[in-house]
Amino acid sequence: MQACMTGSITAILVSALAMTLIVGVRYLAASGFFAWLTGRVRPGLYASLRPQIGREITWSLLSAAIYGVPAGIVAWGWNSQGWTLIYSDITAWPLWYVPVSIFLYLLAQDTWFYWTHRWLHRPRVFRIAHAVHHASRPPTAWAAMSFHPFEALTLAIFVPLLVFLIPIHIVALAIVLTIMTIMGVTNHMGWEIFPRFIVKGVAGRWLITASHHQRHHADYRCNYGLYFRFWDRLCRTDTGLGSFDGESRGSSRSVSASGGR
Ligand SMILES: [Zn+2]
Ligand SMILES: [Zn+2]
C-alpha cells in the first residue's frame, strides 16, 4: 500500500514535470517563432523593449511551471486511472461532435477568461496580480504567458477541470491548446497578422485578434475577451479595434496604474 502510494506520487511528480517542460518549450517555440517573424515583418519593433522582454520571459516560464502541475495531475489520472472525459477512439462520439467540442471548449474558456479578467481589473486585485501582465507596454510576442502566479493559477486550472465536464477527443484537445497558444502569442505581438478582410469584416466583429486586444493593453477598461467579442459586446465593454501606430504607448502612459473596474 505504502509502496503503491509512493509510486503514484512519483508518477504524478514526473507527469507534472513533463507537462511543465512541454508548456515551457511550447511557449519558447511559439513566442520565439512569432518574435522572429516580427523581426522580419516589422524590423526594430522590439528594439527598445529588451529589458521588458526579459521580464516577460521570466514571468512566462514561471507560469509554465504553474500550468504544468494541474495539467500533469490530470494527464496522470487520464493515463493511469481512467479519469476525465477525454477519448481517443474516434468512433466513441459522432464525427460532427469533434468541431462542436472544439467550439464548446473555446466558448467555455472565453467565458471563464472574460469574467476572471474583469475581476482581475478590480483595483486591489489588479495591483496585486494583473499589473504584471499590463507592465508590458506595449506587449510583445513574449508576453503571451506573462502573468503573476496567482493569475496563472486561475488560467491553469480551467482546461484541466473542463476535461471532467465536456467530452473531447484527444486530437480536438490538442487543436484547442494549439489555438490557445497561437492566439495568446499573436494577440500580444504588436501588429496584426490577420488580413484586413477578416479583421474589419464580419468575422472580425465576433473574433478577437491583436487589433482588439491591443486596445485592452492601451485603454485597460475595455475589450476583456479572449477569443470572441460576444461577452464584451453583451456587457458593453467592447470599444472596438485599437491601432499599432504608437497610439497605444501614448495612451497607456496616461492611464492610471489602477485597473479600474
Ligand atoms: Zn494581454
Ligand atoms: Zn487586463
From TrEMBL:
Q: Which GO terms describe its molecular function?
A: iron ion binding; oxidoreductase activity
Q: Where are the transmembrane segments?
A: 12-37, 57-78, 90-108, 155-179
**Is Glycosyltransferase included in the keywords of this UniProt record?**
no
Say yes or no: keyword Transmembrane present.
yes
Highest taxon, organism lineage: Bacteria
Under the cellular component aspect of Gene Ontology, which terms does the record hold? membrane
Quick one: signal sequence residues? none
GO biological process: one example: lipid biosynthetic process
- Where is the protein localized? Membrane
Report domain Fatty acid hydroxylase positions: 103-237
Q: What is its main location?
A: membrane
Q: Which UniProt keywords apply?
A: Membrane, Transmembrane, Transmembrane helix
Q: Which PANTHER family match?
A: STEROL DESATURASE (PTHR11863)
In its UniProt entry, what is this protein called? C-5 sterol desaturase
Species in which this protein is naturally found: Parasphingopyxis lamellibrachiae
